[in-house]
Amino acid sequence: MRADILRHFNVAPRKVTVIHNGIDPDEYRPVMSRGRLERFGSALRQPYVLFVGRISRQKGILHLINAIPFLDSGAQIVLCASAPDTPQFAQEIEDAMDRASQKPGRILWIREMVDRATAVELYSHAAVFCCPSIYEPFGIINLEAMACETPVVASAVGGIQEVVVHGETGYLVPMAQQVEPPFEPVNPEQFSRDLARHINLLLADASLRKEMGAKGRRRVEANFSWRVIANQVIALYASLLRQDPPAADGSAA
Hints:
alpha/beta; 6-stranded parallel sheet; 2 domains; Rossmann fold; globular
């Protein structure tokens, strides 16, 4: 976002300070309960790969669906996805789902925006959270998953790269993109294969998932809790009152 502001507006770099978004780690935390998931019955099983988001081209859901044939055969994919941008894209997703649904029960599509408590249970019991966005200024859903101690596999775009630490809290998947909106991958099949490869690394190693999940939780607590964010805002205002402008590189974040 800082780079976009400097590119599109006549603003002095020293006047732009980055303070990230945040979440409440007391609300988003790992839970053992599965009570809110019972309504999905036997359709929800473990281990599963979780996607949460709108049915939007920006969110990259199509590329995750196209990655399903390359995922380990024992993995289930849970798509908590609704609110399609257009009827045309909704149909495109339906068609992709038909192609990917070769094994009955492998894909569970939750076609609603679930409440926070249900989301926390979904995050907590997922083996891997996947965020395949092709454009993302920040990607707060990655914080929510990390706070629930779930490792993340995400596209290496935009603000996601400031949230997920490659090799520590999950994996960032590189993607060569077109230069014009909607910034689709230059090679969509390769991107889907790369998503699957990194997801498979985590599906195959429960101890690695646990280690990365714990590191993700600690990262959220240290850098993205509302208490931390509030202190950064206070520090920024204090620096302005002292006429002490923020660092030009946005280091306040």
